[in-house]
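Appendix B, example 12.
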Amino acid sequence: MANLDSLDLKLVLSFANAYRRLNEKGEISDQQLEEVMQLVENYQEYAPEEFKSRLHEIFPESDF
């Protein structure tokens, strides 16, 4: 179980860092970054399709 928790943490950090870099490059807004960070922090509350739907709400121009 500890290995799974460690993997979850690594995935969350990677995901968060990727979106931070997009924000630093000006490719996403501060508002989008804040929303996606909240989503990532609470990812366990969402089913995969719901998570994808929330990402699409934050980034409507993207095709996930």
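The mean pLDDT is 90. Residues 2-58 form one domain.
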